[in-house]
Amino acid sequence: MRVLWIVLILSLLPDCLFAQKKNIQAAIDLDKSVVEWTGKKLTGEHYGEIKLSSANLVFEKNRLVGGSFEMDMNSIVCTDITDAKSNKRLIDHLKSDDFFSTSKFPKAKFEITRVEYKSEANYIVTGNLMIKEKTNPLSFPIVITFLNGTAASVTASMIFDRSKYDVKFGSQSFFDNLGDKLVYDDIEIKVKLLLTSNYK
Questions:
Q1: How far is CA 109 from CA 8, 44, 53, 89, 132, in A?
Q2: How far is the C-alpha of 129 from the C-alpha of 167, rounded, in Å?
Q3: Residue 160 near residue 138 (C-beta atoms within 8 A)
Q4: Contacts of 107 (CB under 8 A, 6+ apart)
Q5: What is the reported pLDDT for 117?
Q6: Which residue from 22, 109, 154, 194 lies 20 to 30 Å from 9 (Cα-Cα)?
Q7: pLDDT over 60 (residue 16)
Q8: ∠50-67-164 over CA atoms, to 5°?
Q9: How confident is the model at residue 15, as a pLDDT?
Q10: What pLDDT score was predicted for residue 5?
Q11: Phi, psi at residue 197, to the nearest 5°?
Q12: Cα(167)–Cα(164) distance, rounded to whole angstroms?
């Protein structure tokens, strides 16, 4: 009889007293997180940074299961051109309708739809990248590096085809006989996130 009462009492208690917390959203320091971009053309390349306006990563049982990040496209800067006028000319062009139309589309976003676990530190992530309100699937590796205390860094490197997002300037997908005006469609971005809380 005593055993029966114990079982009955336990069955009436909230599940949360027994269930381990399933999903943990790790805190991310946006000031110390960044997106680095590289664009290449026939005659060379340019590179720079874009600030993140938001980011989140979700873990379940110590494994990455989801998340997203959003880029502030108006924050784009070039770090390889030292001449101020030339630098501004390029940034103004990147913000124009020839490229990212940042006045019309100030945000770009990536949202995870599937995560493939490789090891505690390595994952393959698949998701949707939205730029200029056009969305296409993208897959790439993510590496988690544990730092001192509860912090960790998350790095990802991906390449997307700008022609799929209506970014037409100098693209051989839209124009012929570009000569040395050719700008390659592939753009590389490297995302670096600093996690400031322990998700374990």
A1: 49, 27, 10, 25, 10
A2: 14
A3: yes
A4: 53, 70, 71, 72, 73
A5: 94
A6: 22
A7: no
A8: 55
A9: 45
A10: 52
A11: -130, 150
A12: 7
* Gap between the Cα atoms of 142 and 125, Å rounded: 7
pTM: 0.84
Please report, as a single letter, which amino acid is at residue 163: S
Q: Which tokens is 179 given?
A: 């000569």
**Interior angle at CA 74, CA 73 and CA 77, nearest 5:** 90
Q: Hey, what are 70's tokens? A: 């959003």
Please state, in angstroms and rounded to a whole number, the distance separating the CA atoms of residues 177 and 169.
Answer: 13
Q: What is the pLDDT of residues 23-53, one digit of tens each?
A: 788 889 999 999 999 999 988 999 999 999 9
In the block, which residue shows the tokens 């990802």? 156
Contacts of 133 (CB under 8 A, 6+ apart): 105
